[in-house]
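Hey, quick one: can you model this chain's 3D structure?
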Amino acid sequence: MVMQIQKRVYEILGQAQNGDKVSSFVDRFLTILIITNVLAVSLESVETIGSAFRQEFAAFEMFSIIVFGTEYILRLWSAVAKEDSAHKTPFGKRIEYILSFNGLVDLAALLPSLISMFVGSADLRWIRVVRILRLLKMSNYSTALEDLGSAIYEERQSFLAALYLFTLALFIASALMYVLEHQAQPEAFASIPESMWWALITLTTVGYGDVSPITTLGKMVGALTALIGVCTVALLTGIIASAFTSQIEKRKALMEAEIAAAFSDGIITDNEMQKIEEMRRRFNMNEAHVAAIIEIITDGKK
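Sure thing. Here's the predicted structure for all 302 residues.
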Protein backbone atom coordinates (compact mmCIF):
# COMPACT_ATOMS: atom_id res chain seq x y z
CA MET A 1 0.00 0.00 0.00
CA VAL A 2 2.77 2.43 0.96
CA MET A 3 4.76 1.50 -2.14
CA GLN A 4 1.75 2.24 -4.35
CA ILE A 5 1.35 5.67 -2.76
CA GLN A 6 5.06 6.39 -3.21
CA LYS A 7 4.84 5.37 -6.87
CA ARG A 8 1.84 7.61 -7.42
CA VAL A 9 3.55 10.57 -5.72
CA TYR A 10 6.63 9.95 -7.87
CA GLU A 11 4.45 10.00 -11.00
CA ILE A 12 2.66 13.19 -9.94
CA LEU A 13 5.89 15.08 -9.23
CA GLY A 14 7.53 13.87 -12.46
CA GLN A 15 6.74 15.05 -15.98
CA ALA A 16 3.04 14.52 -16.61
CA GLN A 17 2.00 11.63 -18.79
CA ASN A 18 -0.88 11.80 -21.23
CA GLY A 19 -4.21 11.82 -19.41
CA ASP A 20 -2.72 12.38 -15.93
CA LYS A 21 -4.62 15.51 -14.97
CA VAL A 22 -3.31 15.63 -11.39
CA SER A 23 0.32 15.49 -12.53
CA SER A 24 -0.35 18.11 -15.23
CA PHE A 25 -1.93 20.43 -12.65
CA VAL A 26 1.03 20.01 -10.27
CA ASP A 27 3.51 20.65 -13.10
CA ARG A 28 1.71 23.85 -14.13
CA PHE A 29 1.30 25.03 -10.54
CA LEU A 30 4.99 24.53 -9.68
CA THR A 31 6.09 26.09 -12.98
CA ILE A 32 3.97 29.19 -12.34
CA LEU A 33 5.25 29.36 -8.75
CA ILE A 34 8.87 29.17 -9.92
CA ILE A 35 8.38 31.96 -12.48
CA THR A 36 6.48 34.08 -9.95
CA ASN A 37 9.32 33.61 -7.44
CA VAL A 38 11.88 34.87 -9.94
CA LEU A 39 9.70 37.91 -10.68
CA ALA A 40 9.21 38.54 -6.95
CA VAL A 41 12.95 38.39 -6.28
CA SER A 42 13.58 40.84 -9.14
CA LEU A 43 10.88 43.29 -8.03
CA GLU A 44 11.94 43.04 -4.39
CA SER A 45 15.38 44.35 -5.35
CA VAL A 46 13.74 47.64 -6.45
CA GLU A 47 13.96 49.72 -3.29
CA THR A 48 10.62 51.53 -3.67
CA ILE A 49 8.68 48.36 -4.49
CA GLY A 50 10.52 46.26 -1.90
CA SER A 51 9.76 48.79 0.87
CA ALA A 52 6.12 49.30 -0.11
CA PHE A 53 5.26 45.59 -0.33
CA ARG A 54 7.66 44.16 2.27
CA GLN A 55 4.96 42.20 4.12
CA GLU A 56 3.45 40.84 0.92
CA PHE A 57 6.85 39.65 -0.32
CA ALA A 58 7.54 38.04 3.06
CA ALA A 59 4.18 36.23 3.04
CA PHE A 60 4.71 35.01 -0.52
CA GLU A 61 8.23 33.83 0.38
CA MET A 62 6.87 31.89 3.36
CA PHE A 63 4.23 30.28 1.13
CA SER A 64 6.94 29.36 -1.41
CA ILE A 65 9.13 27.81 1.28
CA ILE A 66 6.24 25.65 2.49
CA VAL A 67 5.43 24.49 -1.06
CA PHE A 68 9.04 23.86 -2.13
CA GLY A 69 9.84 22.25 1.22
CA THR A 70 6.87 19.91 0.92
CA GLU A 71 7.85 19.12 -2.67
CA TYR A 72 11.43 18.31 -1.63
CA ILE A 73 10.30 16.02 1.20
CA LEU A 74 7.82 14.23 -1.09
CA ARG A 75 10.43 13.80 -3.84
CA LEU A 76 12.85 12.39 -1.28
CA TRP A 77 10.20 10.07 0.18
CA SER A 78 8.96 8.83 -3.21
CA ALA A 79 12.45 8.42 -4.73
CA VAL A 80 12.26 4.72 -3.80
CA ALA A 81 9.71 4.28 -6.61
CA LYS A 82 12.27 5.14 -9.31
CA GLU A 83 12.50 1.97 -11.40
CA ASP A 84 15.53 2.85 -13.55
CA SER A 85 17.74 3.71 -10.59
CA ALA A 86 21.25 2.27 -10.35
CA HIS A 87 20.56 1.53 -6.68
CA LYS A 88 18.28 -1.19 -5.34
CA THR A 89 17.78 -0.10 -1.73
CA PRO A 90 15.48 2.76 -0.66
CA PHE A 91 18.42 4.48 1.08
CA GLY A 92 20.54 4.30 -2.06
CA LYS A 93 17.75 5.70 -4.24
CA ARG A 94 17.21 8.61 -1.84
CA ILE A 95 20.92 9.41 -1.74
CA GLU A 96 20.93 9.28 -5.54
CA TYR A 97 18.17 11.92 -5.62
CA ILE A 98 19.87 14.13 -3.01
CA LEU A 99 23.14 14.16 -4.97
CA SER A 100 21.50 14.46 -8.40
CA PHE A 101 21.40 17.79 -10.26
CA ASN A 102 17.66 18.19 -9.67
CA GLY A 103 18.02 17.22 -6.01
CA LEU A 104 20.75 19.80 -5.43
CA VAL A 105 18.68 22.45 -7.22
CA ASP A 106 15.62 21.62 -5.13
CA LEU A 107 17.70 21.96 -1.97
CA ALA A 108 19.30 25.21 -3.18
CA ALA A 109 15.79 26.61 -3.70
CA LEU A 110 15.19 26.31 0.05
CA LEU A 111 18.56 27.11 1.62
CA PRO A 112 18.68 30.91 0.95
CA SER A 113 15.40 31.53 2.75
CA LEU A 114 16.27 29.19 5.60
CA ILE A 115 19.63 30.93 6.02
CA SER A 116 17.99 34.37 6.12
CA MET A 117 15.62 33.12 8.85
CA PHE A 118 18.28 31.73 11.17
CA VAL A 119 21.22 34.01 10.31
CA GLY A 120 20.11 37.57 10.86
CA SER A 121 23.39 39.10 9.70
CA ALA A 122 23.27 37.48 6.24
CA ASP A 123 23.68 39.81 3.25
CA LEU A 124 20.17 39.99 1.76
CA ARG A 125 21.56 40.92 -1.66
CA TRP A 126 23.34 37.58 -1.91
CA ILE A 127 20.28 35.80 -0.52
CA ARG A 128 18.18 37.29 -3.32
CA VAL A 129 20.73 36.37 -5.97
CA VAL A 130 20.86 32.75 -4.79
CA ARG A 131 17.05 32.61 -4.73
CA ILE A 132 17.17 33.20 -8.49
CA LEU A 133 18.47 29.61 -8.65
CA ARG A 134 14.86 28.54 -8.22
CA LEU A 135 14.58 29.10 -11.95
CA LEU A 136 16.75 25.98 -12.35
CA LYS A 137 13.90 23.96 -10.84
CA MET A 138 12.40 24.15 -14.32
CA SER A 139 14.87 21.39 -15.21
CA ASN A 140 12.46 19.01 -13.45
CA TYR A 141 10.08 19.58 -16.35
CA SER A 142 12.47 20.38 -19.19
CA THR A 143 15.52 18.60 -20.59
CA ALA A 144 17.04 21.80 -22.03
CA LEU A 145 20.06 21.91 -19.71
CA GLU A 146 20.59 18.16 -20.03
CA ASP A 147 20.42 18.41 -23.82
CA LEU A 148 22.95 21.27 -23.83
CA GLY A 149 25.33 19.34 -21.59
CA SER A 150 25.00 16.18 -23.69
CA ALA A 151 25.54 18.11 -26.92
CA ILE A 152 28.72 19.76 -25.62
CA TYR A 153 30.00 16.48 -24.18
CA GLU A 154 29.52 14.61 -27.47
CA GLU A 155 31.46 17.30 -29.34
CA ARG A 156 33.87 17.98 -26.46
CA GLN A 157 37.03 17.51 -28.53
CA SER A 158 35.94 20.01 -31.18
CA PHE A 159 34.54 22.33 -28.52
CA LEU A 160 37.76 22.27 -26.48
CA ALA A 161 39.82 22.85 -29.62
CA ALA A 162 37.76 25.94 -30.50
CA LEU A 163 37.92 27.10 -26.87
CA TYR A 164 41.71 26.69 -26.95
CA LEU A 165 41.92 28.92 -30.05
CA PHE A 166 39.71 31.51 -28.36
CA THR A 167 41.87 31.47 -25.20
CA LEU A 168 45.03 31.74 -27.29
CA ALA A 169 43.64 34.76 -29.13
CA LEU A 170 42.58 36.30 -25.81
CA PHE A 171 46.05 36.13 -24.26
CA ILE A 172 47.91 37.21 -27.42
CA ALA A 173 45.59 40.17 -28.04
CA SER A 174 45.82 41.23 -24.38
CA ALA A 175 49.62 41.08 -24.40
CA LEU A 176 49.92 43.01 -27.67
CA MET A 177 47.51 45.73 -26.58
CA TYR A 178 49.36 46.12 -23.28
CA VAL A 179 52.63 46.64 -25.16
CA LEU A 180 51.15 48.99 -27.77
CA GLU A 181 48.70 51.02 -25.67
CA HIS A 182 50.18 51.11 -22.16
CA GLN A 183 52.09 54.35 -22.62
CA ALA A 184 49.23 56.09 -24.41
CA GLN A 185 46.53 54.83 -22.00
CA PRO A 186 48.18 53.71 -18.75
CA GLU A 187 44.88 53.47 -16.88
CA ALA A 188 42.95 51.49 -19.51
CA PHE A 189 45.81 49.11 -20.31
CA ALA A 190 47.66 49.08 -16.99
CA SER A 191 48.59 45.39 -17.26
CA ILE A 192 47.93 42.29 -19.32
CA PRO A 193 45.07 41.17 -17.02
CA GLU A 194 43.57 44.69 -17.29
CA SER A 195 43.87 44.47 -21.09
CA MET A 196 41.95 41.17 -21.09
CA TRP A 197 38.69 43.06 -20.53
CA TRP A 198 39.12 44.84 -23.87
CA ALA A 199 40.27 41.63 -25.59
CA LEU A 200 37.31 39.61 -24.28
CA ILE A 201 34.75 42.24 -25.27
CA THR A 202 36.32 42.58 -28.73
CA LEU A 203 36.66 38.85 -29.38
CA THR A 204 33.03 38.21 -28.42
CA THR A 205 32.02 41.08 -30.78
CA VAL A 206 30.18 42.88 -27.95
CA GLY A 207 32.19 46.10 -28.20
CA TYR A 208 31.04 48.26 -25.28
CA GLY A 209 33.32 51.08 -26.40
CA ASP A 210 34.44 52.02 -22.90
CA VAL A 211 38.04 51.15 -23.82
CA SER A 212 39.49 51.38 -27.32
CA PRO A 213 42.96 51.68 -28.90
CA ILE A 214 44.18 55.09 -30.03
CA THR A 215 47.60 54.30 -31.52
CA THR A 216 47.94 53.21 -35.15
CA LEU A 217 49.40 49.80 -34.34
CA GLY A 218 46.83 49.36 -31.56
CA LYS A 219 43.98 50.00 -34.00
CA MET A 220 45.45 47.47 -36.43
CA VAL A 221 45.67 44.83 -33.69
CA GLY A 222 42.13 45.75 -32.62
CA ALA A 223 40.78 45.21 -36.14
CA LEU A 224 42.58 41.87 -36.43
CA THR A 225 41.29 40.82 -33.00
CA ALA A 226 37.73 41.64 -34.03
CA LEU A 227 38.04 39.50 -37.18
CA ILE A 228 39.51 36.59 -35.21
CA GLY A 229 36.68 36.98 -32.69
CA VAL A 230 34.04 36.63 -35.40
CA CYS A 231 35.66 33.38 -36.56
CA THR A 232 36.16 31.80 -33.14
CA VAL A 233 32.71 32.69 -31.80
CA ALA A 234 31.09 31.43 -35.01
CA LEU A 235 33.11 28.23 -34.66
CA LEU A 236 31.93 27.65 -31.08
CA THR A 237 28.33 28.42 -32.02
CA GLY A 238 28.48 26.13 -35.04
CA ILE A 239 29.88 23.24 -33.00
CA ILE A 240 27.06 23.47 -30.45
CA ALA A 241 24.41 23.81 -33.18
CA SER A 242 25.85 20.83 -35.05
CA ALA A 243 25.89 18.79 -31.82
CA PHE A 244 22.22 19.60 -31.18
CA THR A 245 21.29 18.56 -34.72
CA SER A 246 23.28 15.34 -34.39
CA GLN A 247 21.60 14.58 -31.08
CA ILE A 248 18.12 15.08 -32.57
CA GLU A 249 18.95 12.79 -35.49
CA LYS A 250 20.34 10.15 -33.13
CA ARG A 251 17.18 10.23 -31.01
CA LYS A 252 15.05 9.96 -34.11
CA ALA A 253 17.05 6.92 -35.25
CA LEU A 254 16.71 5.27 -31.82
CA MET A 255 12.97 5.92 -31.81
CA GLU A 256 12.60 4.45 -35.32
CA ALA A 257 14.59 1.38 -34.27
CA GLU A 258 12.42 0.91 -31.16
CA ILE A 259 9.19 1.22 -33.15
CA ALA A 260 10.48 -1.13 -35.86
CA ALA A 261 11.44 -3.71 -33.21
CA ALA A 262 8.02 -3.40 -31.56
CA PHE A 263 6.25 -3.88 -34.92
CA SER A 264 8.45 -6.81 -35.97
CA ASP A 265 5.65 -9.27 -35.11
CA GLY A 266 3.07 -7.23 -37.01
CA ILE A 267 1.46 -5.55 -34.00
CA ILE A 268 2.41 -3.06 -31.29
CA THR A 269 1.18 -4.25 -27.90
CA ASP A 270 0.15 -2.01 -25.02
CA ASN A 271 3.40 -2.70 -23.18
CA GLU A 272 5.44 -1.88 -26.27
CA MET A 273 3.40 1.29 -26.80
CA GLN A 274 4.02 2.28 -23.19
CA LYS A 275 7.76 1.78 -23.70
CA ILE A 276 7.63 3.92 -26.85
CA GLU A 277 5.75 6.62 -24.94
CA GLU A 278 8.34 6.59 -22.13
CA MET A 279 11.11 6.95 -24.73
CA ARG A 280 9.22 9.80 -26.38
CA ARG A 281 8.98 11.70 -23.10
CA ARG A 282 12.63 10.99 -22.25
CA PHE A 283 13.72 12.27 -25.64
CA ASN A 284 11.27 15.20 -25.41
CA MET A 285 9.87 14.40 -28.85
CA ASN A 286 6.60 15.70 -30.26
CA GLU A 287 3.63 13.28 -30.16
CA ALA A 288 2.74 14.03 -33.76
CA HIS A 289 6.32 13.29 -34.84
CA VAL A 290 6.30 9.88 -33.13
CA ALA A 291 2.85 9.12 -34.52
CA ALA A 292 4.13 9.91 -38.02
CA ILE A 293 7.11 7.56 -37.53
CA ILE A 294 4.75 4.78 -36.38
CA GLU A 295 2.50 5.36 -39.39
CA ILE A 296 5.42 5.28 -41.84
CA ILE A 297 6.86 2.10 -40.36
CA THR A 298 3.50 0.31 -40.15
CA ASP A 299 2.63 1.28 -43.74
CA GLY A 300 6.04 0.05 -44.90
CA LYS A 301 5.50 -3.33 -43.24
CA LYS A 302 2.15 -3.90 -44.93
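One thing worth noting: The CA atoms of residues 182 and 189 lie 5 Å apart.
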